[in-house]
UniProtKB/TrEMBL annotation:
SUPFAM superfamilies according to UniProt: HIT/MYND zinc finger-like
PANTHER family to which the protein is assigned, alphabetical: GH20023P (PTHR28069), PROTEIN MSS51, MITOCHONDRIAL (PTHR28069:SF1)
Domain Mitochondrial splicing suppressor 51 zinc-finger as annotated: residue spans: 91-165
Pfam families associated with the record: MSS51_C (PF20179), zf-Mss51 (PF13824)
Organism: Linnemannia exigua
InterPro entries according to UniProt: Mss51-like_C (IPR046824), Mss51_Znf (IPR032717)
Mitochondrial splicing suppressor 51-like C-terminal domain residues: 261-432
Superkingdom of the organism of origin: Eukaryota
Protein's name according to its UniProt entry: Translational activator for mitochondrial COX1
Start and end residues of each stretch annotated as Disordered: 94-124
Amino acid composition bias (Basic and acidic residues), ranges on this chain: 95-117
């Protein structure tokens, strides 16, 4: 894995979304705290011209007209992005020149960063091929073109995808299928087979795949780990302990079908078990509309779910309420949103049972300076439950930093799933707007752990 290490992501990708950034409308892109998450599209408080789920408006952009330099975009939120990059971004050539001029000086790293910021000119020159403001001037752009061409294609793709999402066209790919017939088998090998076997419509372009994978990555990351048709196999991805933990959960999730009862379409009335999924440090995953999570529920038609989103940024979608604890019921799912610290929530939510409870930490930043301390009291509590704990990261380095943090802490734990690429990662690249050379993918990688269990064995003597 190490050979594919991405460049270091600027801290912005980690820091930005920790507060309620996703609650603000996309017009607030000028704010320095803007979330990089696409979820801000879906939680806009503005009239829903930019909400692809409810868009009923005349298209403002044709499909042949999706490429625009950011500053010349017909869409205000995209123009705002150009302003934001000009205010907070970096010209890589200026940055390079600056670091050279300081390389022999004795000043501290922090002071150097401060100084280089003041010397660099803002990136206001837009690459004609991707439309992103990448450099301070055409001159610096031309000097750096060899480097830029490695990211230009991704930036172009993101540019067109963003215009497409806000184009006002009918987003047929977001018209998701309902419950599957009990005889139909879902294939979770990858996005393609999942979407095909579940009967998703209009998935005939990579762009549609990127849009849909970006909203479904949270429920499908959970579903693909837990399901008996999981793409993760013993020996390759799962350890023996991993298989044991998942076997316990699958015992609950896939009860034997009872003829005449479990074939009913009324899922809630036939749900015989409740599985609790705890998403800790929840941010974007809590802002998704409940119907998105139904795609998880449809994978387990006889199970009722409680999804607990816990953390200061766990907020139901489309709400004006500022209550710190809220419940939303949706078919066989109950969503709990709680802003308390996990330590206090843990005491209330217990006791925990490895057959019914599982934890997911989506891009937790266990090793990141701004979030590291927050997790320190939490991890031992989770390990103590002996329930399975899965985590994700937005790129390889992010995953490996979290993994190293866990290993170095000396916890008594077993690995359930070795860190690896997540089959159901978002296919959409998110650009780091403070340095557009860097991008990441939501839930790029995944790993799993559990507090160590000691089997009681009869003594030999
Ligand atoms: Zn420059
Ligand atoms: Zn370019």
């Amino acid at each position: 894995m190490a050979s594919r290490l991405r460049p270091v992501l600027a801290p912005a990708l980690r820091i930005l979304p920790r507060t309620a950034a996703a609650r603000v409308s996309s017009a607030a892109a000028i704010s320095a705290r803007r979330s990089l998450s696409l979820k801000s599209f879906f939680t806009s408080r503005k009239p829903a011209t930019s909400d692809p789920f409810t868009s009923q408006f005349e298209p403002v952009l044709e499909q042949a007209d999706l490429f625009h330099p950011l500053s010349k975009s017909p869409l205000a939120p995209v123009r705002a992005k150009a302003d934001w990059i000009a205010a907070h971004g970096t010209c890589p050539v200026c940055k390079e020149q600056d670091s050279h001029s300081h390389s022999h000086s004795e000043i501290s790293e922090a002071a150097e960063t401060e100084k280089s910021k003041s010397k660099s000119k803002p990136p206001t020159y837009e690459c004609p091929d991707c439309g992103y403001p990448t450099h301070c001037s055409e001159e610096h752009y031309k000097m750096d073109k060899e480097h830029h061409k490695h990211v230009c294609g991704t930036l172009r793709e993101v540019n067109e995808d963003e215009h497409d999402l806000r184009s006002g066209r009918r987003m047929k790919e977001f018209e998701f299928p309902g419950a599957q017939h009990r005889d139909e088998a879902v294939n979770l090998s990858n996005w393609d087979t999942f979407l095909y076997t579940r009967g998703f419509l209009s998935m005939n372009s990579e762009r549609s795949m990127r849009h849909v994978s970006h909203v479904l990555t949270y429920p499908l990351t959970i579903g693909s780990v837990l399901h008996q048709s999981s793409p993760y196999q013993l020996g390759k991805d799962l350890t023996v302990e991993g298989l044991k933990s998942l076997a316990a959960l699958r015992h609950t999730l896939h009860p034997a079908m009872i003829p005449g009862i479990t074939q009913s379409q009324d899922l809630r009335s036939t749900a015989t078990h409740t599985v609790r999924i705890f998403c800790l440090g929840a941010r974007a995953e809590s802002h998704l509309p409940p119907h998105i999570y139904m795609q998880l529920a449809y994978l387990f038609p006889t199970t009722a779910f409680q999804i607990h989103f816990v953390g200061p940024d766990a907020i139901p979608p489309h709400t004006k309420s500022t209550e710190s604890h809220q419940h939303v019921h949706y078919e066989q799912m109950t969503f709990v949103y709680d802003n308390s610290r996990y330590e206090s929530y843990h005491a209330e939510a217990g006791p925990f049972n490895p057959y019914y409870d599982v934890f997911f930490l989506f891009s937790p930043g266990l090793a990141h300076p701004s979030t590291k301390d927050m997790w320190k009291p939490t991890i031992p509590l989770l390990l103590d439950t002996k329930c399975a704990i899965f985590g994700t990261g937005f790129d390889e380095r992010d995953v490996m930093n979290d993994v190293a943090e866990i290993e170095n802490a000396g916890y008594e734990l077993d690995w359930l799933m070795k860190p690896r690429e997540n089959v159901f990662r978002s296919l959409k690249h998110e650009i780091n707007m403070t340095d557009v050379r860097q991008s990441a993918q939501c839930n790029w990688g995944i790993w799993g752990i559990r507090g160590r269990r000691y089997d009681v064995r009869p003594s030999d003597q």
